[in-house]
Amino acid sequence: MLLGKSKGNKSGERNATVILVTNALQYLSHEMVDKIICLGDGRVQEVGTFSELSSDPKSRFSAFLKVLSETSIGAMDLSGDDVDYVPEDDAMSANLDLGGEPEVSKVIAPPPMSPKRKMSIQSVDDSAGGGNSDDQTGALMTDEFKEREKGAVDRLVYISWSKAAGGISVGVTILSMFAGVEGLQVLSKWWLTHWSQSGGANVVFFLGMYAVINFSAIFATFVRLLLFNFAGLRASKVMFEELLDAILHAPMAFFDTTPIGRIMNRFSKDMYTVDEQLVVSGRSYLGTMAQVLSTIVVVTSITPKFIFGLAPLLFFYVHQQNFFTMTYRELKRLDSVTRSPIYALLSETLDGVLTIRAFGAEENLNKRMINMVNVQQTAYRLTFAAQCWLSVRLEFCGTMLVFVACFVSIMQHGTRGGDELFAGLAGLSISFALSITQSLNWTVRMASDLEANMVAVERIQQYSQIPSEAPRLTEIDESLPSNWPVEGRIEFINSKLRYRPGLPLVLKGLNISIPAQAKVGVVGRTGAGKSTLMVALLRLVELDSGSIKIDGVDIRSVGLKTLRSKIAVIPQDPMLFSGSVRTNLDPFDEFDDDRLFEVLQHVGLYSSMVKNYSSNSLSSYYSGASSNVGGRTQPIKSLSETVTEGGTNFSVGQRQLMVIARAMLTGAQVVIMDEATASVDGETDARIQRVFREEFKNATCITVAHRLNTIMDSDLVLVMDDGRAAEFDTPSSLLSREGGLFKALVDASEEEG
Fold first, then answer.
1. How does DSSP assign 487-512, residue by residue?
2. What letter would DSSP give residue 522?
3. Tens digits of per-residue pLDDT, 663-676?
4. Which InterPro entries does this entry report, sorted A to Z (predicted)?
5. Alpha-carbon distance 146 to 144, whole Å?
6. What span, in angstroms and rounded, lies between the C-alpha atoms of 286 and 669?
7. H or E segment and range at residue 38
8. Using 50, 70 and 90 to split pLDDT, how confident is the model at 114?
9. In the prediction, which pLDDT does 129 show?
10. Residues 232 and 281 sit within 8 Å (Cβ to Cβ)
11. Which of 175, 189, 520, 653 could in theory staple to 684 by disulfide, Cβ–Cβ 3.0 to 4.6 A?
């Protein structure tokens, strides 16, 4: 639809051409609408004014209006009698809403949101479009700064990783292998010293023993490497499975309060650290620690006075290590924390790339990303600066140890009168001391790296230990009939629900009884609690008090897997997953191809004989044959047809029809449609409504209404207000109530139309 050039005014506002893409047909007859463009099959079908197109009985636009008028509120006979519609007052108009329910977003944390909304991290005043990018970056990270652990990593974190790696037996075996390898290396050097003092006798014997010792050390090193890597791999697998299980079974409140970037950070950077870096730092730390201990033992055993010079140097060494480790650990934590906003912004950008390009917001997002990366790189760069600081001090410490070893050896050699045997041992002692500088340096670095990498284990454990939902299966599940619920009778008995402790109640004592196989429409203003009915029925959030019964069975006693498998949900935002049509319809491979084709045919996405639709009249599109394929909906030719991520290669209407087909396969006796036609055009809306009524006529259906015409032929209408059932009766009865909420809502809709 083209809204022609807006008139310029004296204040100097420039003229602009406005293009409005809309499903709200009430705006088409507006005086500012200069032209209407009617699209069909990817082409421009008709162009003209409202009067020109609507007056032509052969035009697609005219047929389209005719189809919609047949299902409009005014054309429906609700009670058999004429009903006088009285416009509501301004106050009622301001308070009532047709749908589009972010009802919980302003009152409390929202129930399950669409992936687009879930990925966003809202900061204070962010919607205003202003503010400093640095302030926004800081706001995104504030919560996680508060959440992060402080101080030394708890020893229980080390214990949990060790248990995941195999427990005490594996740990003792690995430590024994490290000690054995280091012992063999010391023995190898001592054997060379002994060989050099033998005077060249029995060369073959000494050479053979030297070879045996070194080959044994090589073999032990290989076994040690395999054991440690396998232990690390096992620990990574166990921790990943625990993390994934915890996230999959986390309550919805967790996802409401946790930005997607933090979850991605755990599964990406933190898991990478556990998979790769933790194994390397742990293995290197144990190896260098074994070298340092063996060096101290060898040097002290040969020159006992070395211990007097060693004590102050060790004190200095430990002091520097503790100071460095404390700083390095916190820098690593900050490095991890500052990555989450980067992942979150990346997800949001990829998800909204079309909107970003349409509004030319690339530069703004680039600046935000650069600011976030700069903050993250500050912490990352400081880790290397800290390592350089430590290296200088450890080099000094190592040099002093070599000096002490040489000085003590010279002094002790003089007291022994130039003993040649001691000269060889002194050489062995000094050779070990020369290597201690590098060993000390790497020991401290690896100890710090090990603790810093253990922060990843600590962060993963935070999410692995979050409270889970109720049990998936319970004992009562086995006693329920396989076809439960048989009737689909639903009772809300004084049901109260809040999304998280400390937040206000959203359902405030709901008491209604929905008869079996009834078709119930739910309406109400924003925040009234419409979508919360679905949340309560699926137990996405547990009731504070009261109960909900289906066929007389309290759903709180039923396992979540059993309960949710018996309820079909057709959401507002239809979600398809990358794969094929078959995997989206039947992810657990429970049905044969004939059954899958059958449901696709029922919803109009497949026909054994593909028919090309070319008629200008849309009325034939709704003539009644459910297998008819036409209009904008193109047929699915194969169950192996590719579905891209999010189903973006299908239109919104096609995705919604496929979700309905998926719901049909469940054979559920209770079906919930949560504003499923809120974002589709009227033509697709009519098709979805027809399929919905035909295929679920024997099920209890609850429809959260966005368009009133979708629920006007319902058996009952529930009007929610402030978490309570304000009105619950047939549409005709509610329309006859003067001053009723539903009547006011209909009047408001007619005035807007």
1. S--EEEEEEEE-SSTTSPPSEEEEEE
2. E
3. 999 889 999 988 66
4. AAA+_ATPase, ABC1_TM_dom, ABC1_TM_sf, ABC_transporter-like_ATP-bd, ABC_transporter-like_CS, ABC_transporter_C-like, P-loop_NTPase
5. 5
6. 61
7. strand 33-40
8. very low
9. 37
10. no
11. 653
Residue with tokens 């929610």: 720
Whole-prediction pTM: 0.66
CB-facing half-sphere around the CA of 547: CA atoms within 13 A: 10
CA atoms of 75 and 207, how far apart (whole Å): 105
Residue 539: pLDDT above 90? yes
- Most confident range, picked from 114-118, 540-544, 621-625: 540-544
- The CA distance from 81 to 218, in Å, is 96
Read out DSSP for 146-159? HHS--SSPPHHHHH
Residue 439 has pLDDT above 80, yes or no: no
Residue type, 242: E
- Which residue ranges make up each domain of the chain? 2-55, 154-464, 485-752
Q: How far is CA 269 from the centre of its chain?
A: 15
Query: What is the residue whose two structure tokens read 């922060």?
Result: 455
**In the structure encoding, which two tokens stand for residue 83, read together?**
């009903």
Dihedral class, residue 612 (left if φ above 0, else alpha if ψ from -120 to 50, else beta): beta
Q: Which amino acid is at 698?
A: N
Least confident of 32-41, 78-87, 437-446: 78-87
Domain 485-752: assigned CATH number: 3.40.50.300
Cβ-based neighbour number of residue 352 at 10 Å: 17
The pair of three-digit structure tokens given for residue 32, joined into one six-digit string: 């500012």
One-letter amino acid at 430 equals I
Element housing 701 (H / E): strand 700-704
**CATH superfamily, with its number, for domain 154-464:** ABC transporter type 1, transmembrane domain (1.20.1560.10)
Q: 485 preceded by cis ω (within 30°)? A: yes
